[in-house]
Amino acid sequence: MNLSLRQLKVFLGVAQAASFTKTAQRLHLSQAALSAIIRELETQLQCRLLDRTTRSVALTEAGRMFLPTAAHIVETIENAALELRKIGREEQRLLRVGVMPHIAVSLMPAVLGRFATLCPLVRVEIVDSTPSELLRMVEDGALDAAFGPFFRKESGVERLQIFPTQLMLATGLQETDWPDFSAEQETWRALQGVPLICFLGDTPIQRMVEESLGAAAVTTGKRTFVGHLETAIAMAEAGFGVAVVPSISAAACQRYRVRLHPIRPAIELPFYCITRAGRASNETLSQLSAVFEQVAQEFSGGNPVLKKSRKRATPAS
Predict the structure, then answer these.
(1) 39 with 162, same domain?
(2) Alpha carbon of 300 to those of 10, 252, 293: distances in Å?
(3) What is the total count of domains within the chain?
(4) How does pLDDT run across 168-202, given as a tens digit for each residue?
(5) Structural domain boundaries enclosing 13
(6) How far apart are the first and last CA of the chain?
(7) DSSP letters of 18-56?
(8) Which of 70, 143, 176, 205 could form a disulfide with 137, with the two C-beta atoms 3.0–4.6 Å apart?
């Protein structure tokens, strides 16, 4: 037996109107199609539900017994559908999004401010953590999405590249005997003997740095290891060495006295929005992703060299 909601609704319509013609008109069906649906329902139930003549339609004894059951089934399914649609609307009004800490600090205030003007009824919760933790939370369903340079494609996660970034060099503004990296044609060769600020662990950026240095047969000078991108920028400002950072970090660099130099030849660092595999499409998430891309491009694009003009306040003596 394979009863359908459509069959039950047609049966209830005929029982209520006592007319095939009126029911067919109300349900926007032809009379032949409606009659075929009733015959199919009666065949599956193996009993006659309606007595029909050229002048009238009446319920049989079996039809009268089946009527309350059919009405209850239809009402239950329609109420459940209403509740599910309500839950769906509520989910559309809350987005849980993950980003790395330096993105949360530098970009998200502008992103959320602009998004609020587009979707004032949507509340966005931000989680700032490491890429591996954000990936786990997306897989577990704790986050609707996460933004970042997620290099490896995981089985339980879908990746959508939203824009490309590039690796850049960050140097302090103080005088050094290092090369003028912006004038160099081959950036990696220019790093021979230059102090380098590196990231701890097997991070995507550090892997790309090591591969590029190895390909150019370059040995850098003293290395300083840090755990976070903004720490690397601060160390570059203090003159400990050169930091390799993504162009999207230009927003974070605005808080430090550093200069950004493009790397030649250019190395692209894709930025992704990741979601749980199989997740239904979410229009509000798509809008947030578009705003994120727009703000990120504004912060990092079109100005490869960032110069800090204002000075930090010095402590009073």
Answers:
(1) no
(2) 60, 10, 10
(3) 2
(4) 999 999 878 888 888 888 899 999 999 999 998 87
(5) 5-91
(6) 89
(7) T-HHHHHHHTT--HHHHHHHHHHHHHHHTS--EEE-SS-
(8) 143
Q: Are residues 31 and 160 in the same domain?
A: no
CA distance 228 to 311: 24
Which of 203, 239, 200 shows the shortest CA–CA distance to 221? 239
Kindly state whether residues 82 and 135 are assigned to the same domain: no
Q: Which residues make beta-bridge pairs with 259?
A: 171
The answer as to whether 171 is a domain residue is yes
- The 10 Å CB-count burial string (b at 16+, else e) for 238-271 is eebbbbbbbbbbbbbbeebbbbbbbbeeebebeb
Strand pairing partners for 311? none
Number of other CB atoms surrounding residue 163 within 10 Å: 17
Q: DSSP class of residue 151?
A: -
Q: What is the pLDDT of residues 229-273, one digit of tens each?
A: 889 999 999 999 999 998 888 888 888 999 999 999 888 888 899
Residues in contact with 73: Cβ distance below 8 Å, sequence separation at least 6, in sequence order: 5, 8
Contact 265, 313 (CB under 8 A): no
Rounded to whole angstroms, the Cα distance separating 45 from 70 reads: 12
